[in-house]
Design goal:
Keywords: Membrane, Transmembrane, Transmembrane helix
InterPro entries: YdjM-like
Organism: Candidatus Thiomargarita nelsonii
Number of domains: 2
Number of helices: 8
Helix content: 55-70%
Pfam family, one: YdjM
Distance between the termini: 32 Å
Protein name: Membrane-bound metal-dependent hydrolase
Number of strands: 0
Length: 218
């Protein structure tokens, strides 16, 4: 499979090209929106490897989650606990998420399973779109573009791994780029339910369809 640097470089290049093109076509409302899309596309380009134990994306993900979770707990308990207790709480919370949750996640997932599929790309697209719209309060169109950039980066990652696998004759065709991992039926059902569930809370696609139709994308 392609290594981390290759995934990062290609995802960054593709996302930058699309973001610049979107901005120049006046589909992005401001330059900072194009920059955001570039970042999200780059993130999407490394996301599929979060199910690979000890991979850079996995370490980055659980380190970030550990810091965020521990900091959140400390903030909520700031007035109730002493400085020493707060320090201990932060350390214990961080280690629990960074190593405990990470270890559990690795046990429950299989590398190149459903996280390495188009189904997962859709799931992360919808999660990004819904979060951008409901939590960050970004407009419908910008929220959808945010989600689509994550999906594009995600699929670029899958395509690279597929090309490397087939080109080096290490794995069979379709091992990296697939609709879903049908060998893991329970996981697939959970992914489908999660994808449909998140899609239900995404904003309207009316503005997105108008933009894509205007540029003759479909």
């Amino acid at each position: 499979m392609a290594n981390f640097n290759t995934h990062l470089t290609v995802a960054t290049s593709v996302s930058a090209t699309l973001a610049i093109g979107l901005f120049l076509s006046d589909s992005a409302s401001a330059a900072n929106a194009a920059f955001l899309y570039w970042l999200l596309g780059t993130l999407g380009g490394i996301l599929p490897d979060i199910d690979a134990p000890q991979s850079i994306p996995t370490r980055l993900l659980f380190t970030s989650l550990g810091i965020l979770f521990a900091s959140f707990l400390v903030i909520t308990e700031f007035k109730q606990l002493s400085w020493l207790a707060l320090g201990c709480l932060w350390i214990i919370s961080y280690l629990t998420v960074r190593y405990g949750l990470s270890k559990l996640f690795n046990k429950l997932t299989v590398h190149r399973g459903n996280f390495h599929s188009i189904l997962a790309a859709l799931l992360f697209c919808f999660i990004t779109t819904a979060t951008s719209y409901h939590v960050l309060e970004i407009g419908e169109l910008l929220a959808w573009f945010a989600g689509l950039f994550v999906m594009v980066g995600y699929i670029v990652h899958l395509l690279l791994d597929e090309l490397y696998s087939v080109g080096n004759a290490k794995l069979s065709f379709g091992s990296a780029l697939k609709i879903a991992s049908f060998r893991h039926k329970i996981s697939t059902v959970l992914f489908v339910l999660a994808t449909l569930g998140v899609f239900l809370v995404t904003p309207s696609t009316e503005q997105l369809v108008k933009i894509l139709s205007h540029h003759h994308i479909f």
